[in-house]
Design a protein that fits this description.
CATH topology of the largest domain: Rossmann fold
Distance between the termini: 47 Å
Number of strands: 17
Helix content: 25-40%
CATH class of the largest domain: Alpha Beta
Order of helices and strands: HEEEEHHEEHEEEEHEHEHEHEHEHEE
Shape: globular
Mean pLDDT: 94
Strand content: 25-35%
Radius of gyration: 22 Å
Oligomer: single chain
CATH superfamily of the largest domain: Vaccinia Virus protein VP39
Strand order of the largest sheet: 1-16-17-15-14-11-12-13
Amino acid sequence: MAIHQVFPEQYQQQLDDKIQQLSADFTGFVAPEVEVFTSAPRHYRMRAEFKMWQEKGQAHYAMYQPGEYKKPFIIDNFEVGSEIINQLMPKLLTAINKNDLLRERLFQTEFLTTLSGEAVITLIYHKALTDEWEAEANTLREHLGVSIIGRSRKQKRVLGDDFVIEKLSVNDRIFSYQQVETGFTQPNAEVCEKMLAWALDASTELKGDLLELYCGNGNFTVPLATHFNRVLATEISKTSVKSAQFNLQQNQIDNVEIVRMSSEEFSQAMDKQRSFRRLADINLDSYEFSTVFVDPPRAGLDDHTVDIVKGFDNILYVSCNPETLRHNLKSICETHDIKRFAAFDQFPYTPHLECGVLLQRKR
């Protein structure tokens, strides 16, 4: 992980600069004023990973300057990390440096924390993990009061759980989410709450059924399902599909069907180019889709999926990459108008912005 310097007194200016750049990048589009959603200026990241720099029999947390990935910088705290991460870091390091079995050949440490106070720490080694290691790690787990996962080549030892349960507050309702150690989750939980609230607000007047591509662990699926009759969601990751099904059950959502397939595959099924055994029990023609929700990876939507998306009256598009969003919108805006445009500052002090766009078919 690269170092990001934190200057809370400069937070608003750095965000203003990013919004100005975003507006400049989208000057070719007819769009309303950007709705801006801020982050906390400190302690906003719920996940973190550190290289463990070993020197003179002691381990240290280390990070890198962007572009200088062979020169580690020793750090004592991580101001962008959650308060729980910063509480655990010194306690963990002290315990590791008192125990050679836990310290030796340790090369990376990862933290996964939540607003609800849970945490998982993953210790990654260049050595086999023995029963003796597990006994010491279990003592460490009891000392810290968190789950510990040990990883090495072809090994995974879980002491406690390999997931946390996050609780996000959206419009006065609490939604619970299982977040698995290896699965993707939104790193800035408070901004995630704002993203979910925005998506709900943007879909208030939308009716019928919803198609969601790239549903992940059901982060958006769970709250959006409350606004639609039925939801069909797709996701390629087995881990994420399993978590999404767990999260639907946890939140008592019963109008969602999840299919494990890529957006490209589903687009082929929608166009009836291919039949898939995974869709054998699902009658696509029975759905009355009015809206599609997409939250693609940084590469954005492929051309075929863009064509499929353009067939819907309403499009909700959440993007982690304004550049690929702009590319996709050049095609989508041939048939749709931008009704709302939002920016979410998931990663303060970096150039990155997440965007949310509501589009509706031209009249």
